[in-house]
């Protein structure tokens, strides 16, 4: 059985109470692959106890389209369908047809809130840039056809991702795990996008990212964990620690309120005020959430 989580840090109760929080990007399906369904359900329950009322669970390839949909319905969350750029190397051309069919089949499913995770990745070696761009652009076309926002992966590829949006159009969405320049951030905002901030912003050395979190318009920011990836600094395990036998860090959606505390601190504002803004911004980015997530005071957001 996985070990229980450590005791909540100081301020955790206040951060939880500042919700309900929306984790706009959480790969919840990976927790079952790691340690089974009971572990996955426990992680989601602990996040709920920490104030995380809703998780958006993006697909990454054809093989987990049904998985993320089932998870979203089981936990009262939502999902996105798409083919991640890191999976384009093993994807088949027919997977785009499968995505088109899935979007049509589930078009009336209120828990389908976006096309994603899609985009480009120029950080990981060995990926074919032309094939990535083909999948990205075709998925933008599908999102536009179904009038769905997109959840974008932009690692080392922000300008090319922006070019695709300008060429083909989109109904908005989220630039997930944003780590670009101020100019690039403004370009996304001008196109109607929100910017996702998560565990990376908690590191003191992330100077540019922390500056963006502090200075961008409040209505541009949404919160995410990308769990089990991008752990915040208090979970991070160094390379030396891993070589000494420590297990790699695994982020969870329950860390979202504490990440929000960091962002609120950078902005010099109360975490409850950040919570209200992030909640409204998430609904603006992914409009179908309005029928799924309670408002900040427990009322319906619809």
Strand order of the largest sheet: 1-2-3-4-5-6-7-8
* Terminal-residue CA separation: 40 Å
Oligomer: single chain
Overall residue-averaged pLDDT value: 94
Low-confidence stretches: 1-7
| Shape, principal axes of CA atoms | globular
Helix and strand run: HEHHEHEHEHEHEHEHEHHH
Quantity of strands, as a count? 8
Secondary-structure-based class equals alpha/beta
How does the major sheet shape up?
8 strands, parallel
Helix content: 40-55%
| Rounded Rg | 18 Å
Total count of helical runs of at least 4 residues: 12
Beta-strand proportion: 5-15%
Outline the structure in words.
With 302 residues, the protein is an alpha/beta fold. The protein is 42% helix and 13% strand. The chain has helices spanning 12-17, 29-35, 37-49, 65-75, 94-105, 129-145, 158-168, 182-190, 207-215, 239-243, 256-267, 271-285, and strands at residues 21-23, 52-58, 78-81, 112-119, 150-153, 173-176, 193-197, 221-223. The protein has an eight-stranded parallel β-sheet with strand order 1-2-3-4-5-6-7-8. α8 (182-190) links the parallel β6 (173-176) and β7. The longest helix has 17 residues, at 129-145. It is globular.
